[in-house]
Design a protein that fits this description.
With about 350 residues, this protein is an alpha/beta fold. It has 15 helices and eleven strands. The chain has a six-stranded parallel sheet. A three-stranded parallel sheet has the order 3-4-5. Helix 5 packs parallel to helix 6. It is globular and about 55 Å long.
Length: about 350
């Protein structure tokens, strides 16, 4: 939880984190190295110098480091795992559902474990989705439309099989569909991350929520035109957030466009950990003010009430989290007491 200078406590939900394994031992081929190296380039180029990790540590980090960086140092009261397969690049996949689940059980009420799927897996994949939902009780899934599968280098949400899987999600009560629609990562195909198919999916499935991760960058304008029409489309700020440091005016333009076209209730804070640590993102976000000329042109409001919505309240609404009740639950958990002791030493 972030405390302001006047002592106000601000609840934080990091809506996009990962516990990945990009290590040499897990890499299946050269593409595994290309992928994690591209991640690292984003990390190194957009992070403040003091938050840049050694590359070896970036390949694979421990669950304890994640807890320390996200919950203890990072101000996040809760965080949401958004896993991906990438089994064409990594022997055991890039993410591990069971590892996420283990961390969630070790620290109750702190993590939400989403899953993933690939509509190219056909009938067998639908059966597996049912089994996974029964085992993990997923509330959401993360889609990676540029993931490779056999000879295919991507799919669209408008594809027939994609719609069958979305129908199954709706049937199972998996309402939150997080979709990577942002910058490409080597060697994936940029066009397979295009945001256009969100429009059809959102129209066909009005009872599902489509959280467009990375706000469609570098296709922000396309995303905004879609989201202003489709009220079940949300903006996930992962990848946009680090520009608050490296290019603050650019970030101000992004957030003001989102507030102008969508509304303050459909934007979610996300760090994309471990590409970036949430601590400095939260600090800079709370301190930020829009440049006067941008504020005058767009007429949007970006005060503390809006920031609170983006930092937690909007994600809480999607995942049925009662923040006042959650504060009480977390206040008495062992991790909170550990954090309090650590802060007393500082």
């Amino acid at each position: 939880m972030y405390k302001t200078a006047n002592g106000e406590e601000i609840f934080v939900i990091d809506a996009h984190i990962a516990l990945w394994d990009g290590s040499k031992e897990n890499q299946l081929n050269k593409h595994g190295e290309e992928f994690i190296s591209c991640f690292y380039d984003y990390h190194r180029n957009l992070s403040p110098e003091q938050y840049v990790w050694p590359k070896k540590e970036f390949y694979k980090y421990s669950p304890d480091k994640l807890v320390n960086d996200v919950l203890i140092k990072g101000y996040s009261d809760m965080a949401i795992f958004q896993p991906v397969y990438l089994k064409e690049f990594y022997k055991n996949g890039f993410s591990n559902f069971d590892a996420n689940e283990a961390l969630s059980k070790k620290y109750p009420n702190r993590f939400i474990c989403n899953g993933t799927l690939d509509p190219r897996h056909g009938t067998n994949g639908l059966k597996q989705l049912e089994k996974d939902h029964e085992k993990y009780n997923w509330q959401g899934i993360k889609l990676y439309t540029a993931d490779w599968y056999g000879d295919s280098k991507g799919y669209k949400l408008s594809d027939l099989w994609a719609k069958k899987y979305l129908e199954k999600c709706e049937e199972l009560g998996i309402k939150n569909i997080h979709v990577h629609k942002g910058p490409t990562i080597t060697p994936l195909n940029r066009d397979a991350f295009d945001v256009a198919d969100i429009d059809d999916a959102a129209s066909c499935f009005p009872n599902l929520n489509f959280i467009v991760e990375h706000v469609g960058l570098p296709r922000l304008e396309d995303f905004c035109w879609i989201a202003t029409q489709e009220k079940n489309v949300y903006a996930g700020l992962a990848v946009a957030m680090p520009f608050i440091h490296s290019r603050p005016r650019y970030f101000a333009e992004i957030i003001s466009e989102l507030l102008y076209w969508l509304d303050e209730d459909r934007i979610l804070f996300s760090s994309d950990y471990a590409i970036w640590e949430p601590s400095w993102l939260v600090e800079k976000f709370i301190a930020m003010e829009l440049p006067e000329d941008i504020q005058q042109e767009t007429g949007v409001t970006f005060d503390m009430n809006v920031k609170k919505k983006i930092l937690a309240e909007n994600a809480a609404s999607l995942y049925n989290i009662n923040i006042p009740e959650q504060k009480i639950i977390l206040a008495n958990c062992p991790l909170t007491k550990r954090m309090d002791r650590q802060r007393e030493k500082v």
